[in-house]
Amino acid sequence: MVVEIVGGLISGSLALLADAGHMVSDAAALGFSWLALRIGRRAATSRMSYGYRRLEILAAFVNGLALFGIAIWITIEAVQRFWQPVEVMAGTMLGVAVAGLLANIVAFLILHGGSHANLNMRSALLHVLGDLLGSVAAIVAAVVILWNGWTPIDPILSILVAVIVLKSAWHLVRSSAHILLEGTPSGMHLDEVRADLEQNVAGIQRVHHLHAWSITADRHMLTLHVVREPGAVPRDIIAAVRQRVADRFGVSHVTVQVEDAEDCRDDAHGSGNSPADGHDCAGMAG
């Protein structure tokens, strides 16, 4: 980062300064990601019953927003360069860019060995990938300037890198925000879960009050109410539902409340997931 800042100021290269600016945020973002992973290992407490693992998602969301800011800054600087061209020392720019590329390749290879399902790790990887692309763009720009002196290539490639960073940032922010808003896990459809349980678990008349959300990208939760057939044993239904959900949908943390039909008629004509479907029903939970 320091080398690219000095090299960018000396050479006049926006591509180098843009990459250096990205690295400034990376230092903070990677530190935040590391801290979130460390704190996330702490055991759950009575005050934080799910523990601290969702800090990983918060770190990913903040990092995604930081990527947005960086990409916008790069774009604004690049547009200004078109109106006010700056002389670029291509030789210095090329040397610094190559050094930056080598450093970013090492960081990318280290992070690439981590979990791709972990949004926090993905956010850190995207930051380094953006730096790597920035270094490649700076090298290409330096080569073009050395070859024919066409300096507009510097802001043009900077904008290209900004667009790539924006695309990655959008996916990251959208995924992490969905988890923070307790949205249904990706690939899971509640209507499908409901139909599967009603068709494949013996002793169930109806499933309602079905909700699914994620603590982290790879840790999902499910709660539901089931209306049992007359004579069906609640304990057996609970065990069967948990097993079916784990086998069919890969969710191991399931809370089931078993109810009798005569005690629960609140959603007989609804989907079972609307805000109005909030009446309590007597039953056994497990």
TrEMBL record:
One GO molecular-function entry: zinc ion transmembrane transporter activity
Span of domain Cation efflux protein cytoplasmic: 185-260
Membrane topology: Multi-pass membrane protein
GO cellular component: plasma membrane
Keywords of the record: Ion transport, Membrane, Transmembrane, Transmembrane helix, Transport, Zinc, Zinc transport
InterPro entries: Cation_efflux, Cation_efflux_CTD, Cation_efflux_CTD_sf, Cation_efflux_TM, Cation_efflux_TMD_sf, CDF/SLC30A
Subcellular location: Membrane
Residue ranges crossing the lipid bilayer per the database entry: 20-37, 57-76, 88-112, 124-150, 156-173
Record domain Cation efflux protein transmembrane: where: 1-181
Residue ranges, annotated region (Disordered): 264-286
Family, per entry: Belongs to the cation diffusion facilitator (CDF) transporter (TC 2.A.4) family. SLC30A subfamily.
Annotated NCBIfam families: CDF
Name by which UniProt lists this protein: Zinc transporter ZitB
Protein species of origin: Bordetella flabilis
Upper classification of the organism: Bacteria, Pseudomonadati, Pseudomonadota, Betaproteobacteria, Burkholderiales
